[in-house]
Amino acid sequence: MFFSQPFILASDFIQHVMLLVSCGIVTLGYCMYRDTIRAQHRTLLMVVVIAAFWIVMEYFVPVKLLQFHLYTHIPLILALIAYLYRIDLTDMPPSFMVLRRIIVVATLVPAGIDIVQISLMAQEPRLLRSLLKTIEVFGLYVFVVQFARHYRMQHEATIFNLTPVKRFATQAVVALMLFFVSAPSVGAFSLTTRIGDQSTELKAGDRLYFDVEIKWPENDRRQDLRVEYQILSDGQIIASEKVLRAVETQASFLDYIVVPQNALEGMKELNVFIETYDQSLSENISATFYVASSENKMLVYFIILACAIALVIMLVIVQIAMIMRTQKALQAHPA
């Protein structure tokens, strides 16, 4: 849709602003209170930091990588939920429980969508993911604002002290360093393809147009990649074409492949396969389209026209035969 990209950009901006404001509010409360209330703010601050860390990570690692979800996304989600449920909401209004459930659901649903999308090799639902992430961040923002308002109305603040923030920042930096050192290496090579709306239903012999986008941010020099396009029918390759593309950090291009003349009607699969010359890196992605019946309309029109002409000729012959029979009857029995 034409408004999807502006909506995604706007939602990303809103997410960043709300996370920054939330982090500031919780940090201020962490500095102003002591003992149990400070511990509550510390736990909530961990929730905000984990949410912000995941939002930032999405810009550097493609969400289509299954190993990234297994080793990074899912552990972060579990950590966020664990810290969120460590916050004691016993003496707080019931709305806090509702907000917490909304945050948890909005956090789990995108992960499920990503895993299903990877399993089915479907197109990434960027608009839906952006909407769900905005709901999650907005729910967290409302939770933080109501949390701070509740304690400000119930408890008097102590003297402002930055020492807890320094201690927390040191611990957070150490934790992040340990995470990056222990986390498995995940390549950021990304391949996406999209079939144009005008090519979702074709006929045998037509050209299948599609967009291919390659992102390779860690690549430091221009490299030639082998690109192969395949059309599959019931798992069998019915058409194939190989090209060479030069890529540095990213590339986007429009290409096409011809649907074979003998392609039967039904769903077909476009497979895009990319690899380097040394075969150290490879990636493939698929998309589906429909091949309609290739029946020749002109032939159908000709058959219909021929049948109509034959019918007219038959009617004329029958009419002539009836006229001749009538004339013979009149000659045989003159008045």
How does this model look, in words?
The protein is α+β, with helices and mostly antiparallel strands. The chain folds into two domains: 4-182; 190-291, Sandwich (Immunoglobulin-like). It has seven helices and eight strands, in the order H-H-H-H-H-H-E-E-E-E-E-E-E-E-H. The chain has helices at residues 4-32, 35-57, 66-86, 95-120, 126-154, 163-182, 297-332; strands spanning 190-195, 201-202, 207-215, 223-233, 236-247, 250-258, 266-276, 282-291. A five-stranded mixed β-sheet has the order 2-8-7-4-5, with no helix packed on it. A hairpin with a 2-residue loop joins strand 4 and strand 5 (236-247). Helix 1 (4-32) packs parallel to helix 5 (126-154) and helix 2 packs antiparallel against helix 5. The longest helix is centred in the C-terminal third of the chain and has 36 residues, at 297-332. The radius of gyration is 33 Å and the shape is elongated.
